[in-house]
Every structure is written in C-alpha cells, then in structure tokens.
Amino acid sequence: MAFIRKFTGENVQYLAKGTYLLTKTESTLFYGTFDACSSVNQEVSCVVSGTIHRGGDALQLLSQNTLSENGYSFMVDVGQRKTLGRLGEIEIEGRTTGYSIKTPDLTIIWDGSYGYTLVVECSVQTRGLLGNSLCGEQTAEE
Known about the structure:
The structure is a single chain. By secondary structure, this protein is mostly beta strands. Helix content is 0%, strand content 53%. The protein has an 8-stranded antiparallel beta sheet with strand order 2-1-14-13-12-11-10-9, with no helix packed on it. The relative contact order is 0.24.
C-alpha cells in the first residue's frame, strides 16, 4: 500500500501501479508514478518517481536524488540552487536529504527516494489525487 495524506487531512492507502495526477494548480501539474516498493513484496506501492510540468517544461524526480530535464540527468549539491525552465520558474535547492523544488504556486520537498511533501499557499486551488487544498502541506510517501 502507498500511504497518502490528502490536503483534507484524510489518510488513504493505495495499492496501485501506474502514473497518477497527484496535484494540479492553475499552472503546475505534479504526477506520481506508483510501483512496487521492492521485488520481494509486490503488495506495497511507493511513489517511485514524480514529474513536474510547468509552462511546457518537465522535471522528473527519479531515484537516489537524481533529477532529469529533457533526458539530461543531474543532481544539485546541498546548499546549491539551480533554476530551470524557459521562464526560470522551477527552482531546485539541494538539501541534506533530497531537494526543495519550488514553482510560483507549489513547493515539493522530496527526500530523494519515496517521500514527497507538497506545500501550497492558502490562495492556491488544487485538484488531483491529493484533493482540494485547504492550506499547508501534504505528504505522499510509502
């Protein structure tokens, strides 16, 4: 099962494989790809990768702290920042564990593995698997 706390605060479990829209704001989409966490236990799903779409740009959050833009894989060192996108609207900051990835309307804190925390401003409307935002942060993790 994948454990997800929706924006409403409700905790849900999913046994899923495939790619799902976790959240959508007015101008940012964040998809999560669910698959088995390990080859040993096929009954436990994890978000094994994520993809941020914004303004025609796509950033993939792969595994082991690896990011990919247009097929080019890279990492951002702890304390360093990198700006992506034609409009420079995706900012990545390296953290001790993973990354903080910011767009103007959504922040995704990724542990570099299976854990994602999404933070939105109270004024931002969201839709998707995580539901409608009420303010604050929500998690999608194993």
